[in-house]
Amino acid sequence: QVQLVESGGGSVQAGGSLRLSCSVSGNTYGGYCLGWFRQSPGKEREGVAAISSGTSKTYYTDSVKGRFTISQDSAKDTLYLQMNSLKPEDTAMYYCGFRGGNCFRLRTDFAGWGQGTQVTISS
Fold first, then answer.
1. What is the average pLDDT across 42-56?
2. Residue 115: what pLDDT?
3. From the CB of residue 104, how many other CB atoms can be counted at a distance below 10 Å?
4. According to the model, what pLDDT value does residue 121 have?
5. More confident site: 74 or 7
6. Cα(100)–Cα(34) distance, integer angstroms
7. What percentage of the chain carries pLDDT values higher than 90?
């Protein structure tokens, strides 16, 4: 079983930056997929970014390309999401998720996820 704990959310003005972190622990042997997804009240879950642990191949939803960067530290126990040029429409609860195997694509169908961290962007 894998445990995920997100942190780093907050409230910033449009154009600002935030870096989200996700502590990853537990059974992460072999290749796996880590990603960030977000959800706002009344809206469907939206995949934001994903990374395959073995290949480091990354995937992004179109609305964040060029603004967000997903990465993993060398020890592979922390996942990051650097968010720049933030917009009010980025406001949501952000979750990090885990699933076995490569990502192959941007995903929302994770086997487990953390408690989430709130990101609020004001105009």
1. 95
2. 97
3. 11
4. 98
5. 7
6. 9
7. 89
Tokens 């994903």 correspond to what residue? 50
Helix, strand, coil shares, percent, the chain, to 5:
5, 55, 40
How confident is the model at residue 29, as a pLDDT? Answer: 77
DSSP string, the chain: -EEEEEE--EEEETT--EEEEEEEEE---S-EEEEEEEE-TTS--EEEEEEETTT--EEE-GGGTTTEEEEE-TTS-EEEEEE-S--GGG-EEEEEEEEES---S-----SEE---EEEEEE-
Residue 110 neighbours by CB under 8 Å, 6+ apart: 33, 35, 37, 97, 98, 99
Is 83 in contact with 20 (CB distance < 8 Å)?
yes
- What is the rounded distance in angstroms from the CA atom of residue 13 to the CA atom of residue 3? 31
The three-state secondary structure class of 66 is: coil
Q: How far apart are CA 26 and CA 81, in angstroms?
A: 21
Residues in the chain: 123
